[in-house]
Amino acid sequence: MNFFRNGYWTPSELITIGTFTGLIKISTMLIALAGGGMNPVTLILKNTVATSLLIILVYKVRKFGVLTLFSIINCLVSLVLMGGNPMTFAGVLVAGFFCDLLLAPADGFRTPWRLILVVGVFDFMSRAVSLGYSFLLYQEELRMFAVGAVVVSLGYLGCLAGLGTGILFVKELRHAGIIRE
Question: Whole-model pTM?
Answer without folding.
Answer: 0.88
